[in-house]
Structures are given as C-alpha cells and as structure tokens.
What we know:
The structure holds two protein chains of two kinds.
Chain A: E1 6-9, E2 26-30, E3 32-34, E4 40-42, E5 45-48, E6 67-75, E7 80-87, E8 92-95, E9 105-107, E10 134-138, E11 141-145, E12 152-154, E13 159-161, E14 172-178, E15 194-197, E16 199-205, E17 220-223, E18 232-238, E19 246-253, E20 273-279, E21 286-289, E22 299-300, E23 314-318, E24 321-325, E25 330-332, E26 346-347, E27 357-363, E28 366-371, E29 374-381, E30 385-392, E31 404-406, E32 410-415, E33 418-423, E34 434-437, H1 443-447, E35 458-462, E36 467-472, E37 482-487, E38 492-496, E39 501-506, E40 514-518, E41 528-532, E42 537-538, E43 541-542, E44 546-549, E45 552-553, E46 561-571, E47 574-584, E48 596-600, E49 625-631, E50 642-649, E51 655-665
Antiparallel strand pairs in A: 1-51, 2-44, 3-4, 4-51, 5-41, 6-7, 7-8, 8-9, 10-11, 11-12, 12-13, 14-18, 15-17, 16-19, 18-21, 19-20, 20-22, 23-24, 24-25, 25-26, 27-28, 28-29, 29-30, 31-32, 32-33, 33-34, 35-36, 36-37, 37-38, 39-40, 40-41, 42-43, 44-50, 45-50, 46-49, 46-51, 47-48, 47-50
Chain B: H1 19-33, E1 58-65, E2 69-70, E3 90-95, E4 99-113, H2 117-120, E5 123-131, E6 134-138, E7 148-159, E8 162-174, E9 193-208
Antiparallel strand pairs in B: 1-9, 2-9, 3-8, 4-7, 4-9, 5-6, 5-8
Amino acid sequence: MKAGAHLVVQPLRGIDQRWRPAPNAAAVVRDMRWNQKDGWEDSGGYREATNPDPETGNSPFVGQGTIESLHWFAQHNGARQWLVWEDSAGRLRAFNGSTAPAVPWTHLEDVRGNLFDAAGRTRTIIATPWQGTQAQAWGGRLYLVNGYDEPLVFDGVKCDRAGWSERPSQPYATAVSGVSTTLNNFGFGTGQKLCARKYRVSFLNERGQESELSPPSNPMVVDTAAAPAGARRFGLVSIPLGPSECVARRVYATQDYLDGDGDYTDTGLGEIYFFHSEVQDNETEQFEDHVPDPLLGSAVDDLDFGPWPTGGKYLAVFKNTLFIATDDGLFFSAPGQPEVIPSDNFIPMGDDDMGPPTGMRPTKNALLLFKRKGVYLVKGEPLTGFSAHTLTRDQGNDAPNALAELPGLGMVMVNGNGVHLIEGALENTGTVTAIRRLSTTVPDEVADFASAALIAAHGAVYHRDKEYWLSVPRLGSNVNNRVLVFHYEIGEWSWRPDFPINCMLETRDHRGLLYFGSGSTTTLKRGLLVYSPGFPDKGGTAIQPLYETGDIDWGNGFTAAVPVHLAVRCIGHGNNDLNLNYRINRQVVAVRPAVMGTDQQDHTGRFPVFGTAVWGTDRWHRMRPVEVVFDLTGVTEGPARAISFSLSPALRHLQLLGIDVAVTPGAERDILPYSADRGDAGQLS
Amino acid sequence: MATRFRVQRIETGGVLQPREGWLDNQNEFASEFNGYLDRDNIPASAINETRIVNNAFHDLFFDTVDVVWNADGGVLGWQHEDGAGVALPEISRFLAFDSLLLVQASIWYQYSGGGGLADQDATIVDFRIAMDGITLDQTGPISRFHRRHGAHLLGVIPIPAGDHRVHLDCRVSFDVAGTGAITLLDTATPGAPSLAVQAGELVVLQRKR
C-alpha cells in the first residue's frame, strides 16, 4: 500500500473469522441484514403473533409453557391455512386469530371428540434435546409423527390415526340353504357337489386407506347335494368390527377350490383371494354371501398392504409416495396411498454404525436420508421400487430440523463439524454431486456449537431477506441461543443474539412470514412469535446492530502507516449518530475509551428529520448514500500494520456500504533490533 | 392466517423520507386488504345468523304439473314426458357451488279401464325422483288395488357445481299373464288400464356443502 493513499473497502461482506481475511470481510456482523442494494442494514425484532389483551395487557401465552414444534399446511389451494403447534405440555393447537387476543388458538381434537389439551389427550414431549414432532402435508391433510405416540393425520376438522396398527381378526363363515325359485343366478348352485370358500377382511378408514388383510376364515363348505333337494346354498359370513377410525370393510373370497369329488383342485386356488364386496359401515357383523365365483372381482395380493410402522420419526413425500423413517430403517407407502405401507416396502439402510436416521428431505429427483455419519440418496420409482445409494459415510446431519433447501444452491445440513451444502443428486442436474462446507469462514461459531444438543437446532429460509436462519445451541447450552444467518445470495454469514427459537418456519404463502415457537417463558419472549424489521426490539431486548471489520492488514513488518481519516460510506439515516471505534494491530482493547459519534447526514446538505421537521417548511426527501467522516486521532499503538473498525448506530438504523480509510506514511521511525525490543533474547547483542 | 406485520419502523431523528416506515408499511397492509382477509381477521361470533342475507347458503326451487299426464303404454322404461308433450315436474339449474340437494316430490294419480280383480295385482307403477338420471328415491311397485293413489318421495344427494337437472319419472308395466313376465302396458288393448297423473309437485332445496 502506498503512503498517503486511500484504502477503499467496498462492498462490505460478512463474517470471516480466519486469520487473514479479505479487507472487506467482517469480524462481527450482529443484528444486521444484507439487502438487495448491497448494503448492510439493521435487522428486525420479534413480538407475539397477536397483540395482548388491550384492557389487561396480558399475553395469552402466560403459563402456556414453551412451543416445541411448529407446522404449516394449507387447504383449498391455499385459501385456508393452518399454523399448528405442539407445546411443552403436549397440547396440539392451531392458530385461530378470530379468538384473539384472549386465546388465539383452537385445540385439535381426535375423531372421538377428545381435545389435545393435556386434559383430554396429551402428546409425548421429551425434556432433553430431541427431534420433536415432524409433519408432512399430503392432499390437504397434515401427518404428524414423533417416534412415540400414534401417528396422527389432521384434516382441518379432526385428528385421526394415520394408517393402521392392526389387521382385522379372522372372519367366520358357515353355510346356509334356502329354496328360491327366482334368484336363478345367485348362490352356490344346486349341482351335486361339495363347494368350499374362504374369506379375508380388511378395514378402510375415511381416507380410503386399507389395512392389512385378516387371517383367512375357516373354510366354508357347502354340500349342494344335501337336503332339501334343489335348495340353493349361501354363505353366512361373520366379519369383525374395526376400530373407531374404520368406516368400511372390504371382503375378499376365494373361488370354490373343491372338485366334484370334494378333493382340492389346482394348487393354490384356495389361497387366491378375489374382491368380493365392500361393507359400507362399521356396524354390520354378518352378511349372507350369494356371489358365485364368476362374479368375484380382481385378485388381491396381501403383500400390497401393511401396517404403519411404529416409531416413525421422520416423514417425506417423494414421487407420490410417503416415506417414514424409523430407527429400524425406511418404510414407504404405496403410490398415492400414504397410509398403506406394503409389507415389502422397506429399506433397512444398513450402516447401523452410522447411527439412526437424523432427517429426511426430498430434493432434485432424489430423497435425501441423513444419519449421524452418513448421507444416502433414495432413488427409484414407486412401481419398480426404491433403493438407497450411499453418498458419503464421512459426515452426516445432526440437526433434523435445520435441513433446508437454499434457492439455487442445494440442501443445507448441519453437524458438529459445521454447516454443509449438498449439491447435485447423482443425476444430470447440472451440478456435480458433492458436499461443500458453508461454514468455512465461521470456524469460531462452529467450535461453539453444543454438539450434544445440536439435534434441537432449527433452520428456515427467510426469502424476504434472502437469508437462511440457523438457530443453534452453543457453549454447552441445551437450548438454542444464537441465530446464525447465512445470506445465501452473497454467501456470507452474520449472527443475531436473543432469539429464543425452539422451532420456526416460513409461511409458504404470498406473505412469507417467519414465525417461531419460543423456548422461553419470559415476558414478551414467550409463545408464538413473529419476526419483522418493523418491530422495535426483540421481545424487550434492544436490537443492537454492529459491523466490525476484520483486521485489515497494511504492508508488513517493515512498513506501516498511520490511519488519519475514515469515511464511512453509508445511507444517510439522519441525526442519530453512527458510532465508531477501532483497534490497532489486533489488540483486544479499542483505541478510544469511548466511541466517536457523528450524524448519519451529508455534511454538504442535511436533510430534515422526524421529530424536528416542521409541517409546511420542511419537505420529504429520499434515502441517499452519504459519507460520514471521522478523524482517527489518538492512535497511540502505532504505527499500524492492521486496523479494525467497529461501526454501530446510536439508536438502531444504519446501512453500511463501504469504508474509505485515509492513511499517511507511518514506517518504523526508530530502527531497533528485531528481536530484543520485541521481547526476545536479543539476536544482535 | 391472513396476518401481516409492519415491515419498517420510523426512528425519531431519522431522515424525513416517505418510503420506509410509511409507504412500505402501507403497501404491506393494503395488499392484505385486497383479497386476503380471512377467519383470523374476524372475531369469533362476530357474524351471526342475523348478519347473513337470506338464502345465502340455500335456495328453494319447485315445479308442478297441474294438467293430466298420461302414461305411454308403449314404453317399458322410465317416462318423463307423455305423448301430448306434458312433462312431469323437473328443475334444471346451474349451481354455482358444490351443494347438497334435498329433493321432495308428491303426486296423485288414477287408473281408468282395465280388467277385473285378477288384473289388479298385475298392473304396477313406479315413481322416482332422479338427478341427471341417477335415482334418488323410488316408490317401488305399486299395484292397482285402488283406483287412486298418492305418492311421496324424498331424496338427498351431494353434487358438484355445474348444470344439473332434477326430474320426476314414472314407469308402468302390466303382468298380462300373471306369471311374473313383465310386458308393456298396452293401452290400445281392450281391457288394459290406463294411468294418468292428475297433479304433481317437485321441490328442491339447495344447500351449500
């Protein structure tokens, strides 16, 4: 660098905690957001999603515990939207603004009318860090699993059990006979022979999802030659009633598998079941079978059905198929039937030494399944079957709820080694399939991760500000206590304190709001919270933007310079000061005992400001870039080989574009032995 | 979830400019008012029955026949219009939304001519109410023991929005030989009875699903 020169640093970029960052990198970017005009401005705060009671000032979330999981889904092409959450008391609630401010929620209830309000029904909540309840929307319904409770499906009115946990018990059949002159085409005939048939039954729930088939009934044997002569024979079939979610039952029957001598006919004929009828209720316990063999329907394969697996922890929809990950492996549904899990639809995954599944997300024509130390791509088609392909056994995902797809980049996963991006999907997506580290520039933040509690981390993409939010536990905490923000359009990091995020999501509608469930019960910081730059603070805690540049190196050990002026290129926000302090040569203590403050105004022409502007005299203006200049006096640590500037607003608003540092020559004036005066033994003496 | 929150905040001492704090916030809320307000913006129970206009969620239609409708003895299936162009009641409507139809019909009819008592069990008539040909309710066979009869039908069906037709139909047959073999009721045959609907009414209540 030349003496008497200016060092212009622009545009400013995010945090780089490596030893030798670029001059435009920052050491700290706190409570700030990068905007589309390439400036860094103050970020937002949060408040409860509804206002407190205007008369009492009370929040509806007093005494309601913490929010453990948050889920979003929409019905009727997005016209009816649901924000569902589960709290620390195991209650399931849906946001209901029509009852605000008193209780802006409605408890979900099951098909028997029991409310999930902790008094009626309760969901399992684990006090230590866990993945929480996972949800997946399908066909206007929301499926919920947590690995412990029965899987639920919420249809906007009620909750029901998802899938079937049991199959019907064995039906019982016997033969009856009667004389008929008119039903010539029904019954088992009047021929002189023995006939036999067996039955199986399945349950149907109101979503048309069919259970496993029951065990076969006893053989129903009819002797059409028996008295009374000429009587037609019928089967009297007793079928089991289903559980409360059962709305209909399907009956399957074999064809007659005895020949004229009463011996078995073709091999296996007695084990092939054909559709017989559907009983459209859950009340009928007996029916009379008069359907002859030619009028039976198509054959059924009992391997097409199966129970919903127990211990399902993660859900994902991929290629019209619902995937359920358990600690045992990966189950997947029949296509188009999310609650029917054929018994062969199981991928054991293997690699048990890689740990249990820790998340699942579909992306780019593949389903990503994560383990603690592995990433797998599930590929295939519903009709030909799916298989798992190992992408890596080097590292995996520790934070199931932090998985998110960054626009145009790939899938983010988080583990104790950092934040990583999965690009490509083993196919011609235009991107090489690879895992790339995103957290290269923030090693100190990664080192602070509380890796044992990382399963509690949550992430969300906030499209309004082009940000990926990662709320992580750090410094040994078991709750999330810092938000790392990845500004994905420029690939830079910043962080924000004081966000008690237990869980969060971005609404998937035109509003794109960022809601989060609080892990705190502190006043103003509890309940259902929403983020916006329009809010004055973070639940009562001030928003404190800070941009601290990295240590900008000048020259080397033989040359140095003295900084004399700093022009901060920023947006002229008004009369509230922009504060500056700075450090020399990587000292911990700042040069000035107190910050220097200067108005965020152009000194060649100030704009009127709110609070003092006079109606009829002053006029509206536009925001504009200005230069706010500081004199860097009082440098006692010089000459300077590295300098770092710390910029913050006296109140809240600021927007930084760059800095311009003016320096004068400041080489070593007193040539000293290199070792002695630096505290060494003295190489020249 | 029609919720919006301010997106910018004015600071005392901030530059007097209209965009941030004024226009941005105004735009945020204006875009929500223009079509996206929903249940979350309306207090519970703020709208009760008295605030809803009449027939907001239902409508009532009816049709009658008050001239004599004569069954055609040459038709074995369902009949709606007789040879003189007189039709049994029907209602055709375009339904703007998915609906539940409650359909009622009442009719009275009489026989004339026909044979003696031996034939009375053999002449049967069915009436039905149907929507687009789908039977909603059917009387079942009614014999000719009495010269005059009344019938009442009631049916309910959920239907999607669109053009639909609800109609009352009649079916007559005559078991000439008394063997169970159904033949046409041939009014041209001496001694065969004829059937005439004297009056009928069809009422349809449309209810939003």
